[in-house]
Amino acid sequence: MERRFGIEMEIAGINRETASSALRAVNINIVSEDYNHATRNHWKIVSDASVRNGFEIVSPILDGEAGIAEAEIVARALDDAGATVNSSCGLHVHFDASDLNLGHLKAIMRRYAAHECEIDAFMPRSRRGNENRYCKSICGFVRGLLDNATSIQNLVELQHDRYFKVNLQSLGRHGTIEFRQHSGTVNAAKIANWVRFLAAFIDECKRVADGHAAVQSAPAALPALSSVQARLAQMFASQGVVRLDEMCAAFGWLDITARAAVTRLRKAGMEITAIKVDGVAAYKFNGHTTEAGAANAAESLWNGIAEAVALFYQRRAAVLAVAA
Question: CB count, 10 Å around CB of 240?
Fold first, then answer.
């Protein structure tokens, strides 16, 4: 990972003094400041009105893998010091957008919206769909306004505010694109994998927008979900039509998780059509098609994503599906 980035960690459970002492103990230059949006050359602690009984720790500009390593040191130190998170906390990641043009930014927004249900599946419930007003779905924006943008400035203006899963408002202020969907965490592995996932996601969108073939770094199939997917595939094969509520009851899923599972079966080559049965959402299995499966695989969320990172999220989605 070579892209420059910055992170904002919203945390609770400890006070500013404890956080500062813990980070200084591991040689992190940390300063407690009043609320501000200024980019510093040091880590800073600032207040955040959206965080319940907590505050925000903001990084300086970090660079590639060395930056990820530094973020991991910070996360581990805070974790060891007793920092926690609650449902009001988020992890926000800014990426340098100096090499991204209007076409690249539109490609990022379209691809994220296309796979938003899949990404939701490895997020806690409080960060899915439109559950959180501080990280709203971008699907409506992509469908309704994205095509109208004729410049980057116009694109920023059309989004209106920054409280979306993918925020473009930071382009004007910081020259960055911000991803706001991840839940708050002091888990070093979660932070490292999310940064690597997003950086690779951006690079893949840029590559495709420039007319290059998609890079299928990770398997399009979901090995961690193979048994669950097989059970769902068998349900479709035996019944032909499966209602959404029936799927949710059978697997203990939320609606959004079930829809994401259907999407993954489609990418595996199953022709499944959304229908209504007595006014209730359902899906009809029309058979298998290798060509459709291959075409859909080319649009996989995991294109360009390292296999270890993809597997991390596939396993996380499987656990959250069971725990839902």
Answer: 11
The model carries a pTM of 0.80
Whole-number Å distance between alpha carbons of 69 and 37: 24
Tens digits of residue pLDDT in 13-24: 999 999 999 999
The HSE-up count of residue 42 (CA atoms within 13 Å, CB side) is 13
How buried is residue 63: exposed, middle or buried, by Cβ count under 10 Å (0-12/13-18/19+)? Answer: middle
Q: If you average pLDDT over every residue of the chain, what do you get?
A: 89
Phi, psi of 12 (to 5 degrees): -145, -175
Residue 27 CB contacts under 8 Å (≥ 6 apart), including other chains: none
Q: How far apart are the C-alpha atoms of 129 and 254, rounded to whole Å?
A: 11
- Mean predicted confidence (pLDDT) in 85-113: 95
Give the C-alpha separation, 93 to 191, whole Å. Answer: 9
Nearest CA to 318 out of 118, 146, 131, 136 is that of 118
Written as six digits, the tokens of 265 are 């079966």
∠ Cα 2 89 313 (to 5°): 50
DSSP-assigned letter for residue 272: E
Q: Give the three-state DSSP class for 301.
A: coil
**What is the phi/psi pair of residue 166, to 5°?**
-120, 115
SS3 at position 167: strand
Contact between residue 43 and residue 31 where contact means Cβ atoms under 8 Å apart: yes
**How far apart are alpha carbons 283 and 286 in whole angstroms?**
10
| Terminal Cα-to-Cα distance of the chain (whole angstroms) | 33
Please, how many CA atoms are within 13 Å of residue 26, restricted to the half-sphere of its CB? Answer: 19
